Amino acid sequence: MWKKIFGGGKSTPAPDGDDLLSNLAVDRERMPRHIAIVMDGNGRWAKAQGRSRSAGHEAGARTLKRIVRAASNMGVEVLTVYAFSTENWKRPHREVDFLLNLFDSFLAKEIAEIHAQNVRMRFLGRRDRFTDRFLRRMEDTEERTGHNTGMRFNLAANYGSQDEILRAVRSIAQRAAAGEITPEEIDETFFSNALDTAGDPPVDLFIRTSGDLRLSNFLLWQSAYAELYFTETHWPDFTPEELSRAIEDFAGRSRRFGGLDAQE
């Protein structure tokens, strides 16, 4: 069983883009529609390299650029990455400031390419603790890419799944109290559309790098039947080649959603 859950170790560099797409041994109907990634291990990668945590985060940002391009070229419908959690504010102020500035720099540098790839970008999570400058950057990014018809790229920043669920419950409760909806109208689809990921399909493939074996409060509702893929590879070393291996591993699994497969 564990071989179906755990991925491989450190990957070797590989091309992203059309080469991986042509070599991907997965039928279109077996591809995951929605991939979620916990991008873990920047600090551990930096420590192993004898470098600063900041250098690890910068390397992680470069990896994110490659993975977004590769996932888009592979035909992934939705890619959601965990960039900054509601709990990450507990980190030293210096590191938090560096991360937020890195996000801002990433958007400023990469938005043209993201837009050129026809990728639609959206931000998940609370926005009440960000600076006005960063909020404008987020809003400009969403507006600029909002009409793109390619892959949807969600970046979760100041995000926690429990917080997201509570916000959705409060919103629905307020509408019910105002008489706008009845309890009978609230089903799984209704609730899903009250979440930050409204309109996206459920998570099919949940990837976590750097060896930890937990969900860390990420997309708990959306990942109810996700296939889990854990790898020891630190995020800065995670390549498009390893992403393709994770997709191929996913395609080889039997997804029964509580039922039985045809043989059974």
List the helices and strands and how they pair.
Layout: H1 18-23, E1 34-38, H2 42-49, H3 53-74, E2 78-85, H4 93-116, E3 120-124, H5 132-145, E4 152-159, H6 161-177, H7 188-192, E5 205-208, E6 227-230, H8 240-251
Parallel strand pairs: 1-2, 1-5, 2-4, 3-4, 5-6
Helix pairs in contact: 2-3, 3-4, 4-5
Any overview of this molecule?
With 264 residues, the chain is an alpha/beta fold. The chain is 41% helix and 13% strand. It is built from eight helices and six strands. Strands 3-4-2-1-5-6 form a six-stranded parallel β-sheet, with helices on both faces. Helix 5 links the parallel strand 3 (120-124) and strand 4 (152-159). Helix 2 crosses helix 3 and helix 3 (53-74) runs parallel beside helix 4 (93-116). The longest helix is centred in the middle third of the chain and has 24 residues, at 93-116. It is globular, with a radius of gyration of 19 Å. The model is unreliable at 1-6 and 8-16 (pLDDT under 50).
Brief digest:
The protein has 264 residues and is an alpha/beta fold. It is built from eight helices and six strands, in the order αβααβαβαβααββα. 41% of the residues lie in helices and 13% in strands.
Q: What does the main sheet amount to?
A: 6 strands, parallel
> What is the distance, rounded to the nearest whole angstrom, between the alpha carbons of the first and last residues?
18 Å
Number of strands: 6
Mean pLDDT: 90
Order of helices and strands: HEHHEHEHEHHEEH
Count of DSSP-assigned helices: 8
User: Rg from C-alpha positions?
Assistant: 19 Å
General form: globular
Q: Which class best fits the helix and strand makeup?
A: alpha/beta
What proportion strand?
Answer: 5-15%
Give the proportion of residues in helices: 40-55%
Q: Give the low-confidence spans.
A: 1-6, 8-16
- Trace the largest sheet across and list its strands: 3-4-2-1-5-6
